[in-house]
Amino acid sequence: MQIHPSLMPDPGLSDLLTEYAGKVDSFFLSEIIRKAGGKGDIVRTADTLWPLFTTLDLVTEWVEGDLHLSKKPPSGTRVLTPAEAKKMEAFFGDPSLSPWISGCIHGYIEKKTGKSWDDPVVLQKIRRAILSQKEQYWKEGQEKRISYGKGYSVLGYLAYQAPVYLIQAEHLLYDLALRGLLKTSMRILDCGTGPGVVPLAVADFLGRLGGCSAEVYSIEQSGEFIEAFRHLTKTCIPPEIPVTIHPPIESDLTGIPRHCLPPSLDLIVYQNVLNEMTVTTAGEKGTMIREHARALSPEGTILLVEPADMANSMDLRTIAHQATSRELYLHAPCRFLWGTPCQPERCWSFVEKDPVRTTDLMEALSTGNDGYKFRNTDIKYSYALLRKTRPSWEPGTPLSPREYARLSTLQRHINRRINVGAVLMSGNIGDRNTYVFKICDGTTRRPVYAILPSYHISPWNEALLSIPYGTSVLFTSVLARFNPKYDAYNLLVSRESRVAPLAVKYSGMHTRRKNPRGKKR
């Protein structure tokens, strides 16, 4: 990307800033300008020096027209104990919205309408808003016009979508913790925050976990959403939760001035927002993400999260591919087992979690013959995890061509038994008679599925039914088939086939067996 000379940092200012950052714990940008002998504009100077703030590990705060800079406090990794992980697994096995969040949503409805949250007239207007949003949601491309410009459209969002998105965000935070990417003190930016779903999820998750604090920044352009955000984040979060939620920056994601973006971030989140940017191409979204990533600390993480339907899921893979560069790498769920990045032309991949319990508001909306239209409990989403650090090689990779076939060469092996290595890219998308899992090794352009009929389940292959999404898996003695109807390859897992996580072969670990016929609810 070419940078106009007028936006390049002045060498004298850059040197002074570097010197100050190495000697002084905190200072104002005006001090730097005065030391340089200039009378430069604070905002313009902040914009030109902005990339250096993260390089020097500085945090910023605007104070009465001046920019205060200070060193980012050190923070360690928040490691979960087995007891904490067990507690989290129990919650996610039957998740529900915390009472303080439900109560806050009820309170905002009453503040906005002047009536009880379960008033029949209020509920009917919320139903209309939900139906209108759903009608727009299923349109594709530039025909999609999702707007939150009216009060009841926000209330409909809070009633129907927010509960699922809140728990979904907490799943993602838990996943970061399991990966060792959660810090004891986090600086987080939520891009397209809406009414503050991700900030509320951060507060709820950290309140449940303990031993961790966060400063949360956000960007939002809808005035109605910002009004809801202020109510939900200022009046409802329990005071004992160590989370500071800053007022949202009112801006479009593609047009936000650089100096408005907080530097030295640990996490940037785009949850269910990229699909609503209908006039922006995948390439432009990728460029935007790379620009925002300049505010990311060297060990920071970017989460892209989109709905699980085919169109949005495949678009997400394309956007993630466009966002990667020499300074931003894809870490999950994709793993390139042969060392070659993929071309995600037809990549539909998503996670499915246990459903969230219906809220009191959903129950009130769901009376009558069409009540099912207002219940939204399924948690299914596609995600990509990007980082500035290169992903490390898994033990045993790149795979050996003497032992394993690339999925891109399956046309040579039709009706033969072969060994392959691949990443599990879905849960079971079949049924209990025939289990179907999407797999990928980063080499194939056609979809590939592992097929396990229930009558072929054996102690040697049943691990496939419990291996987590995004895990690298070795398949031994699977039968290659081509399905012309769907232009896809199937790998038949039979009784003689063996299935195990890649880590098992190279670490000697054992997988925990689960009931292969279905999970207990």
Structure overview:
It is a single chain. By secondary structure, this protein is an alpha/beta fold. The protein has three domains: 5-71, Arc Repressor Mutant, subunit A; 82-387, 3-Layer(aba) Sandwich (Rossmann fold); 407-507, Nucleic acid-binding proteins (OB fold (Dihydrolipoamide Acetyltransferase, E2P)), CATH 2.40.50.140. It contains 14 helices and 18 strands. The protein has helices at 11-23, 29-35, 42-55, 82-93, 99-113, 120-137, 151-160, 162-178, 197-209, 223-234, 282-292, 310-323, 360-365, 502-507; strands spanning 26-28, 58-63, 66-71, 185-191, 213-220, 243-245, 249-250, 265-271, 296-307, 329-332, 351-353, 379-387, 417-424, 434-440, 448-453, 472-483, 488-492, 498-501. The strands form three sheets. Strands 4, 5, 6, 7, 8, 9, 10, 11 and 12 form a nine-stranded mixed sheet that branches. A five-stranded mixed β-barrel has the order 13-14-15-17-16. The chain has a three-stranded antiparallel sheet with strand order 1-3-2. A hairpin with a 4-residue loop joins strand 16 and strand 17 (488-492). The longest helix has 18 residues, at 120-137. The radius of gyration is 25 Å and the shape is globular. Residues 1-9 and 507-521 have low confidence and may be disordered.
